[in-house]
Each structure stands twice: as structure tokens, then as C-alpha cells.
Amino acid sequence: MFTKVPSARSITVTGFTVFALDQITKAWAVSALDSDSIQILWKLRLHLTTNTGFAFSTGKGLGPLLGLLAACVVVLLWRMRTKFSSRLGTFALGLVLGGACGNLADRLFRVPRWGRGAVVDFIDFRFWPVFNLADAAIVSGVVMLGANMWFEQRGDQHNA
Fold this sequence. Notes:
Blueprint: H1 7-32, E1 38-41, E2 44-51, H2 63-79, H3 87-109, E3 119-124, H4 133-159
Antiparallel strand pairs: 1-2, 2-3
């Protein structure tokens, strides 16, 4: 169903693109949304917040542990890259890695730095926790990886 592609290159290009867009949009959010929110449509607004925890602002203050965990996940996923050879799988893995690196960079380099930094969040639907492009890439990538595994498993069952 999906053609084979060189996985490391595709993953790297996707991951770097996600990382760059995430960092650019966070820099914009920090400068443009410092004191104001921007109403976009219906419940969607751009509103600056920071998060020292993980998903849904749980685990506040666990920054060093979360930074270490994120770094381990990035290394583990990179080492597993050869397991993903379809376009969907490599694209999805690139999304997850780029998003994880984007949030890890916040933890490492934003005040107060070195694992204690806060992740910048700014996309706010007001009925869902505030998030950023890295978060969206991670969630989308995980869903796509699940779909990829499902497609591959179904393909193996039909070929058996």
C-alpha cells in the first residue's frame, strides 16, 4: 500500500521541519502574546501559557525528570527508525521526533534552563488544555503510527 522510502532521511527532514516550525511559532507567541490573547474563531484563541509539567499540566515541577524521559524517548525512537519503512510510518515518526525535540528544547533552554524550563503553549480552544505545534505533531504522529501498524498488520494477514 505504501512504497518504501529511505527512512532516516525522511524522518530527519520531517522532524527538523516540525522542530523549526514549533520553535518559530513559540518565539512568535512569546513576543506577540505576552500581554494579549488573539481571538481567531469561535472558541479558538491564541493565548500564551507555560507548562513545567507534561500532558494537561500534570506533574508540574517534574521538569528535570520529564526532560530526561523525553531525551530517552527521542533516542529510543531514533534507534527504532529502521522498523518504519512506509511513507506513513516514516512521516509519523518524524512528527513525533520533531515534536518531542521541540518541547525538549524548551525544557533545556527556556528560563530557568537545564531541564527546568517551561514549555510554551499558546493554542487554546478553551475546552481543551492549551497546546503548541509540537504537541499537535506528537499526537498526530502517534495516531498515524497506530494506523500504520494496523495497515501493516492487515497486509501481513492478507499475505499469509
